[in-house]
Automatic annotation (TrEMBL):
It holds the Pfam family Nitroreductase. It comes from the Bacteria. InterPro entries: Nitroreductase, Nitroreductase-like. Transmembrane segments: none annotated. It comes from Candidatus Thalassospirochaeta sargassi. Its cofactor is FMN. Keywords: Flavoprotein, FMN, Oxidoreductase. This is Nitroreductase family protein. Residues 7-153 form the Nitroreductase domain. GO terms for molecular function: oxidoreductase activity. Belongs to the nitroreductase family.
Length: 173
């Protein structure tokens, strides 16, 4: 798919996903896109976990309150960050920004390969889910899952939500 076509057609998919697990090759390609994303001072602070172990996937699927995609995903990609980020420029760290850039690249790579996905953040931050999933994935106490992405082939197609026009959101001076 051509880049701008991928950007324009990608949307957050929260519906039922096909139960077949994405190939290791595709999951590696998708995560490599996240690894290739820019990061503040090239610190490369975001780590990733490809979750495809059926037992771990089932435990995450069973966690309450998530979208249908969360409860039916055959695989997940978890982005994790430091609990105590290092200040790398003056008194600033860029862990959240680095993570966001990497996840955006991952979402675009997944769409380009025909997978559906959604950036899950708010759900993860409630009811201790981030800590629970971090433990399931074997992260130490110094790292935490910041974003989790259910990934699979979509079983339904629907149009992307309408976006506001360029002129409504952009000012040229």
């Amino acid at each position: 798919m051509e880049f701008f076509e991928t950007v324009k057609s990608r949307y957050s998919y929260r519906k039922k996903l096909d139960p077949s697990t994405p190939s290791d090759e595709d999951l590696r390609k998708i995560v490599q896109a996240g690894l290739d994303a820019p990061s503040g001072k090239n610190a490369q602070t975001t780590g990733f976990i490809i979750i495809r172990d059926p037992e771990t996937v089932s435990k995450i699927n069973a966690m309450p309150g998530g979208s249908t995609a969360m409860s039916t995903a055959p695989a997940f990609i978890a982005a994790h960050v430091s609990c105590a980020p290092e200040k790398i420029f003056l008194d600033y760290d860029f862990e959240i920004e680095d993570c966001a850039a990497a996840v955006a690249y991952i979402l675009l790579a997944a769409a380009d390969l025909g997978y559906a996905s959604v950036w899950v953040d708010g759900w993860l931050r409630t009811d201790n889910r981030a800590a629970d999933i971090s433990r399931m994935c074997g992260l130490g106490h110094d790292r935490v899952v910041r974003i989790i992405i259910p990934i699979g082939r979509p079983l339904e197609k629907h149009p992307r939500c309408e976006k506001m026009s360029f002129d409504e959101r952009v000012r040229i001076i």
